[in-house]
Amino acid sequence: MNILHIDCSPRQESHSRQLSAAIVEKLLEVAPGASITRRDLGAEPLQQTEALYAAALASPATLAAPPMGSLDLSEALIREVEAADVIVIGTPMHNLTIPSVLKAWIDQILRVGRTMKSTPAGKVGMLRDRPVFIGVASGGFFTGERANQPDFLTPYLSLGLNSIGLRAQQFLPLEGTAFLDRSQAPLARDKALAALDLTVMKEFRAAPGRPAVLSSRDRPCRDATLLSRASPGAF
What DSSP string describes the chain? Predict the structure, then answer.
């Protein structure tokens, strides 16, 4: 099994990083032989959409004959997703929604004709479904009786992932982090982890037609952050 582990916080000791790491640990208890592909968007952010990529996506004609190198980064990121059997995302809530580094990643993997197709009924995903576990850390509260702010993160990220075929999503919120001291953080994290449902893993491991997992020898790069820097023409 291959786990794609994505973090988005610029803080190395952030609550979202610790939550996503704890999710990965739980997955390794179920599949101790799993490999991990790491993409740290907080430490190595992707560049925002640039002219060549925008030009490639401008029309069906430009997508059919894109400028040289314009889709290299997008293709590398999509292949990471395709190689993963499970995806773990750790993200803070920034100003009610996802941080810009996660939006930059989404803008590269949501690509018409590659990961989704447009139909009269809306976007239809083209990728194989697989579990996606999203650990969300928020300084305030956006659920329950103490909710004091709206949540644009969950519906946006859920719809974006669903648009490419990733429907088996679990959101694990860790709220009120601005009011937690260091001693309270582990208990709050354990409370968030209590909602983790790993029974879905058995369902997907038994799914017929499931592609073989890339081994570390076959995978282009174990440290996924290097792909964005090494791909010629990527931005």
Answer: -EEEEEE--S-TT-HHHHHHHHHHHHHHHH-TT-EEEEEETTTSPPPPP-HHHHHHTSSHHHHHSPPTTTTHHHHHHHHHHHH-SEEEEEEE-BTTB--HHHHHHHHHH--BTTTEEEETTEEEE-SPP--EEEEEEESS--SSTT--S---HHHHHHHHHHHTT---EEEEEEE-GGG--TTTHHHHHHHHHTT--THHHHHHHT-TTPPPPPPTTTSS-SBTHHHHHHSTT--
* Distance (Å, whole) CA 54 – CA 12: 32
What one-letter code names the amino acid at 154? T
Q: What percent of the chain has pLDDT over 90?
A: 83
Find tokens 């519906």 and name the residue: 155
Q: Are 76 and 231 within 8 A, CB to CB?
A: yes
- C-alpha dihedral sign at 207, 110, 221, 37: negative
- The pTM of the full predicted model, rounded to 2 decimals, is 0.87
Name, in order, each residue with C-beta under 8 angstroms of 60's C-beta and a sequence gap of 6 or more. 113
Beta bridge partners of 88: 5, 133
Compute the distance between CA of residue 202 and CA of residue 225 in angstroms, rounded to an integer.
Answer: 30
Q: What is the dihedral of CA 96, 138, 103, 150, to 10 degrees?
A: -20
Quick one: pLDDT band at residue 204, thresholds 50, 70, 90?
confident
How far lies 163's CA from each of 60, 194, 200, in Å? 19, 28, 20
Q: At what angle do helices 153-163 and 100-109 cross, to 10 degrees?
A: 20
